[in-house]
Amino acid sequence: MDKPLIVVNFKTYQTASGESAEQLATVMEQVANRNYRMIAVVSAFDLSLISNNTDSVEVWSQHLDPVGKGSHTGWLEPDLAIYRGAVGTIINHAEHKVTIDHVRDLMAMLPENFPICACAADVEEAIALAKLGPTFIAVEPPELIGGDISVTSADPSIVSDTVAAVKSTNPNVRVLCGAGVKNGADVKKAIELGAEGVLLASGVTKASDVSSVLNDLTS
Ligand code: G3P
Questions:
Q1: Is 93 a catalytic residue?
Q2: Number of domains in the chain
Q3: pLDDT confidence of 35, banded at 50, 70, 90?
Q4: Is 140 a catalytic residue?
């Protein structure tokens, strides 16, 4: 297996926006270069700021739209995101759902080797997305997002079932899991269940000691 992924979604948390986003990315940078692939998924407004100040941490967008240059007011155009430092993106997050056509059209526009992580609420949605062949699928039960119990403890079978279903649909798609992930034990359990990493937010963005949490996640 490649290096497991620790994907930190900054969302619009105060502690992960603007100057605070820069500080959080700096702490991530300090714990990077170990045995994990670290990814900061930042607001489109912060792409430039963070990408200019990170080296080992990959900077991804939280969403992109399948539009090009032209009359597309307010949409997140992939080429501009890439110009501003995005080297990957998530799509169809539980907090920003899109249609399957949106994912398909976006994938058709993205450069080769630009990782896209499509989020799925359950096994059925993961199978539908796997047919499109995104780089990653992250399974995140919506009811566990932002909660105290990791998906790996609350619903381990959704992780292993998603891995099995995705691999039998498209063996090239790699599976992540998320919702409630807080510590290194949750990461290890995710890997035991067949995932190749985790997608998390509040465990980092709400932590009083971010450095210690990140060190534990990557221990
Ligand atoms: O994108 C990650 C997210 O939805 C999980 O959030 O706060 O449960 O780690 P959280």
A1: yes
A2: 1
A3: confident
A4: yes
CB 93 within 8 A of CB 121: no
169: part of which helix (H) or strand (E)?
A: helix 156-169
Of all protein residues, whose CA lies closest to atom 2 belonging to ligand 1?
A: 200
Ligand 1 atom nearest the C-alpha of 9 is: 1
Structure tokens at 27: 């702490």
Contact between 81 and 47 under an 8 Å Cβ cutoff? The reply is yes
**Distance, CA of 170 to CA of 144 (rounded, Å):** 26
Region 158-186: what's the mean pLDDT?
A: 98
The Å distance, Cα 201 to ligand 1 centre, comes to 4
Q: Average of pLDDT values for 66-71? A: 97
CATH (domain of 153):
3.20.20.70
Which amino acid makes up residue 150? Answer: S
State which residues form the domain around 167: 5-217
Tell me which residue of 128, 125, 150 sits closest to 139, measured CA to CA.
125
Ligand 1 pocket, mutate which of 140, 144, 158 (most atoms under 8 A from CB): 140
